[in-house]
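Ticket #4471: structure export looks truncated?
Reporter: QA, pipeline team
Priority: medium

Steps to reproduce: submit the single chain below to the structure queue and open the exported record.
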Amino acid sequence: GAPGRTTTPGVLFAGLAVVLAAYVVYAALRSPGSSTTLIDGWGVDAFEIAAAAFCVAAGLRSGRVTAAPLVLGIALACWGMGDTVLTIESLGGATPPAPSLADAFYLAFFPLSYVAVVLFIRGETRRLSSPNWLDGAVAGLGAAAVVAAFAFSTIEQTASESGVAVAVNLAYPVGDVLLLLLVAGGSAVMSGRRKGPWLLLAAAFAVNVFGDSSNLLHHSIGATHLGTFVNAVSWPISALALAGAMWLSPGLADPLAPRKPPGFALPGLAAGAGLVVLVLSSVTPIEFEATGLATATLILVVVRTLLSVRELRAQTRHRHHQSVTDHLTSLANRRRLFDALEALYAERPEDRPAFAFLFIDLNGFKRINDSFGHSVGDEVLISVGRRLQNALRPGDLLARVGGDEFAALVIGAGPAEALAVADRIRAGLVDPFTLDAVQAEISASIGIALAPGDADDAGGLMACADAAMYRAKLDSVPVARYDRSLDRGGNKLQLADELRSAITTGQLVLHYQPQLEFAERRIATVEALVRWQHPDHGLIGPLTFLPLAEQAGLMSRLTFWVLDQALIQCSTWRLSQRCVRVSVNVSAGDLTDPTFPDTVA
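Actual output as written to the record:
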């Protein structure tokens, strides 16, 4: 937009603030009891209508409609219309009726403002629980009960108006207190944000409380100079502050700010006030209105408590579900799996059913994840989870325990049933996955451990299945059942130790893949490919043990060994008049090592 457009609200607000300041000075300096219809009547009415329009404009700024400023603007317009009606009824020195048509406009302000504040809270936080909705109503009823018990009869005796008029006068401060307490409760919900709009709202409603209380006393016990001043300036100040709060940006939320739990101080005080009123009513005469309001307060407190308990139970269930569920695949997570295993092992041995634990590691997923990105990789994991779930029985438990690692707990399964489940899992992964019009294949290496024979606890059974899975991967077979003689200690740590010793004990060998030049009919270059001649598992390819070397920090030693052996072989060939080039693969970690050029040289 044009530069001038962005400053228009600020200019309008400043202009209204200057007019308001001039009126406040005028009201403070004028002689007691003096007022003019032009300034105190039509002038204040026009100012309040202008503040309402300014508030409505906040709901229509930038071409988007926002409900909270619109509703609050309508509320302010109702109050301005009430003042306008009162000015008309007071023309010529006439005394307005009590209650009058103006009171209908005035009282409409309160429910509209309540709705506007709730909409503002929901618009900023996107969440507002039922107890938060009721806190303001509970506090307002409690305050109304106290006011009715201790002030209603006194005011009714000292005022000439009817009981209805006195009740209307009492409705104003009670309504102000309700709105003020709602804003105070909303401050806890707005944790992590700048509190500028909330401070302005609270200040505006606090001014309302003083103004309406002053007006109540003015009609009940007579006017004072201070009371007249407060009654004159409070509503223009409040109207401008409310409109300004709708324009003031709340700022960005702080994601690191701790969430404050819902407070119980306000509803607790309200319940105590209602209880005190009911106790006093049993020993001394108290107005019927006060006991009714106190009873309504306690009933609403009970409703609020029941809603809080229900919401707490729902949150507890939700958080427990989150704690045992994998956020990506919606399967069980490692914690849920471990809890289920521990529950099975907690049974007495004679009552414990036989069960199988399958550890499933995906082959080919890393290539997909690196080639297509993490978002595609996530979709593949979700699809894999569905296929694995379809391969299991309804009572079996499937969990995602790591990046591309899954596990299945099959209750009542022996060796044959466990192998049958593993076959169904493999069959479910046969069909390729379609990724951006490209088909990718994924297989699985599966390790099986059986209870009660393979381990005596949950952690031991998981370790056994993990060891069997790694043996399946090393032996290039799809499924391996845990064998104590082969897999004892056969985990990542032992394999890393074995690889560390393999580099220095001659278990590694180089194979050379030739690159032919057909035009000259000769081998021009060979590529050095490392293999691990494992004493138990035979010849292991680099795709199996190189990731282990990366994780164990052995890649630099392995690269140095490959370079050294490749140079020795190249020298031997050249001494025998075979002039070929030898290429050696290196890892990304080697290229980022500042000492690597010196190593090659």
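Status: closed, not a bug. The export was complete when the record was re-opened. Leaving a note from the reviewer for reference: Confidence is low (pLDDT under 50) at residues 1-6.
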